[in-house]
Amino acid sequence: MSDYFETFGLDRRLGLDTAALQRRFYELSRQWHPDFHQAAPPAEQARALEASARVNAAYRALRDPIARVEYLIRLEEGRETKEGATVKPKAPPALLAEMFEIQEALEEARAGALDETTRAVLAAQRDALRARVAETESRLAGPLSRAWDAAAPDQRSVALAALKEMLATRSYLKTVIDDLGAALGEGTEETHVANRRH
Amino acid sequence: MSRIVGIDLGTTNSLVAYVDDRTGLPVVIPDREGRRLLPSVVAFTPDGILVGEAARRQLARRPADTVYSVKRLMGRGWEDVKDDLRYLPFRVLPADGTVKLAVGGREVTPPEVSAIILRSLKERAEAHFGEPIERAVVTVPAYFNDSQRQATKDAGRIAGLDVVRIVNEPTAASLAYGLHRLGQGVIAVYDLGGGTFDISILRVKDGIFEVLATNGDTHLGGDDFDRVLLLWLLEDIQSRHHAELDRDCVDLARDNEAMQELRLAAEAAKVRLSSDERTTLSLPFERFTYHRTITRAEVERLIEPLVARTLGPCRQALADAGLTHADIDEVVLVGGSTRVPLVRRRVQELFAKMPHSQLNPDEVVALGAAVQAQILAGGIKDMLLLDVTPLSLGIETLGGIVSILIPRNTTIPTSAREMFTTSVDGQTVVDLHVVQGERELAKDCRSLARFELRGIDPMPAGMPKIEVTFLIDANGILQVQAREQRTGKAASIEVKPTYGLTEADVERMVEESFTYAEADVETRLLVEARNEADTVLTHVERALRQAGSLVGDAERRTIETAVTALRQARAGDDRDAIRERTTEVNHATEPLAERLMDAALKGALGTRRADEIMAPRPEGAS
After folding, report:
1. Interface check A27 vs B, CB under 8 A
2. B222-306 architecture in CATH?
3. What are φ and ψ of residue A3, in 5° steps?
4. What residues of B are in contact with residue A29 (Cβ under 8 Å)?
5. Is B503 a catalytic residue?
């Protein structure tokens, strides 16, 4: 079976023209959407349904630069199944050490009531972490993606490892942000639950 | 190939539409009397089943046997609806995986009731075209889950309709708008109907209608506005007239007929207050007439929390689409409840944009369904709707945690593959629990179905590799396939839907539906004439009791003569005679009715004419 890049007639590259991707998505949808195959024999209808589902999945995986990186890693590692079965990559040890203080503050927050000062500190830390998530995302979508595209075949595993580490950092930071939100009594926003696997 | 019609199966009203081949525009099919909306009401009377307007007139007369808002029960289990039931005058019972209604001495399921409405629309279309209609596109709220969609498809089958596509209401509306003025850009469709709320954000470009995100509440609509108003009125009546009520030991809240009268009056007042700043209610009871003026501001205070509940889903949909309100080019209002000025104000504030509603909000969904029907029939080739699944689909894993396979707002059709294996040596069956929802724990999500993968060859634990494909089709309905990878053989799947009817249930209902014949036209007209007579007789008796000195002997005799004549006619089967005698009674009591109203209103109501107040029956609806 072809991969999602091939579905869209693209090389396996992280840098791509999203406007062209959208145009191609609309073309392929017009070609395969079940709406246009209603009168076809059942076997052909089933084929259209499958192709259409594939086009939609491919577009979802490729349109967003972060999702694209996640998909590329899956593809390069030859993992077939989707998000559900993925082993969580480990966050870099340096980051874990750095977060130690916040984790401690979180433990305390869980144990007892929060005073105003601690609340303010935690909220400020969360804002700082959000800025760092944005930074990891722009590094993933920018220099790290370009590095993979430019890498010679024997350098690709290095470029891929850099992408994986940055993804792990991002997902770890997001977890801490969620925990901070929970400790601040804002609960985990519904968005985070649904988007965690995107 | 035969024609495909578009049907809006609404909570309050339903419609059928088609695209006119000559103009290329969608049009609503009216009934013989020219009425376009079919009230979604079904009455089970001893003489047969009544649908639509005829059934609507039974609401206050036969509350226990007249079903309205059945859409709120579609695809639902007992746990989902039991809190709603105290407001419904008909009996709802728990059943295996669904609920049943005990009405007219029989038990029916919500899809069977919906099927009666669909069949009526089918017949309407058949009378219009002079040919059988067997296929339809039917709309559902975008936020309907799998079971609610499946229930809607089942209703179609029971009615003898092949539902070739389930379309989401807000997206259908966008198609109708798109056909009229093909704009480009991002639009938000705010759809507040009788019982459900949806918000959909779409990008329209080159004839493609791509839904970016959708959200909503399948338990929020005009019905809820009516309910808060009803409860407020009830309290007011009880406090103002407690003396009369206590003397007769009347508990209004337990009087089904009075509550239905009150509900209809509340709904009518709500409708009037969309155009007027104030309105007057006048409700005759056994020993008193309740009347009062209600202002729009009063009702707005009551419904404000309900309207506020629509704003959260709007913000979530924007966030899911990765947009802010500034990215929205146009806001479209759909559904009768968007006529409420407060709703318009809040929507305008949220999106900082004047919403528009050039197309009739009651009809636009049906028109869009007709457009989708025409696309499927091959009659429109330049438009394509790419919709999304409203809720995340996942499976229950160890510890009751949900593993999401297909996140919400994924464009459909879509599929996800997942590998499963066994945990015990020689295991030949694997259970799967599929859920829908956004919560992390399976118990907080909506259980869709339990699957049993059977026929796995006995192997050591962990050896079998069963690939399961979950596919959500263009209707938003789940299909599941499984394959053992080593042997390549298809594993058999037994599906136990958590909510809804089994295949065998539907088969049986299709057969039974032919024996549940609707009352034929003659019988129906006779029943209607008798009901009308009963209503008039009740009112006249009450008027005569209240009149006292307002009626002279001669007038009283004239009225009594007319009443006796009507009673005799009513006992017979001559529908025309009943109608004529009814008119005569009406005529004879007209002067008295006016004097009674004037007496009741003197001083209290200022300058309103009595006939404005005399019309407690709502015409429009949400």
Report:
1. no
2. Alpha-Beta Complex (3.90)
3. -85, 175
4. 208, 384, 386
5. no
- The per-residue pLDDT for range B419-458, each reduced to its tens digit, is 888 888 888 888 888 888 888 888 888 888 888 877 788 8
Give the fold, CATH level 3, of B391-513. Answer: Substrate Binding Domain Of DNAk; Chain A, domain 1 (2.60.34)
Interatomic CA distance for residues B298 and B294, integer angstroms: 7
B8 assigned to active site: yes
* pLDDT tens series, chain A, 198 aa: 679 999 999 999 999 999 999 999 999 999 999 999 988 999 999 999 999 999 999 999 999 999 999 999 999 988 755 444 445 567 777 788 778 878 887 777 777 767 788 888 888 888 999 999 999 999 999 999 999 999 999 999 999 999 999 999 998 899 888 888 888 876 544 433 333 223
Cα Rg, chain B, nearest whole Å: 27
Kindly state whether A17 is in contact with chain B, defined as any CB-CB distance less than 8 angstroms.
no
Protein fold of B4-220+309-386: Nucleotidyltransferase; domain 5 (3.30.420)
Say how many domains are in chain A.
Answer: 2
Residue A15 belongs to a domain: yes
pLDDT-derived band of residue B148, with 50, 70 and 90 as boundaries? very high
End-to-end CA distance of chain B: 36
**Partners of residue B405 in chain A, C-beta under 8 Å:** 82-84
B169, B198, B267, B505: the catalytic one is B169
Classify residue A70: in a domain, yes or no. Answer: no
Tell me: do A112 and A189 sit in the same domain. yes
pLDDT of amino acid B1: 56
Report CB contact under 8 Å: B419, A81.
yes
Residues of chain B contacting residue A84, judged by C-beta atoms under 8 Å apart: 395, 403-405, 416, 418
Catalytic residue among B71, B122, B153, B270: B71
For B521-608, CATH gives 1.20.1270.10
Q: Is A175 on the interface with B (CB under 8 A)?
A: no
Give me the interface pTM, i.e. the ipTM.
0.83
Torsion of CA A105, A106, A107, A108, to 10 degrees: 50
Rounded CA separation B368/B18 (Å)? 9
The mean predicted confidence, pLDDT, of chain A is 84
Q: What are the structure tokens assigned to B334, written together?
A: 């759909």
Do A51 and A103 have their domain in common? no
Cis amide bond preceding B413, omega within 30: yes
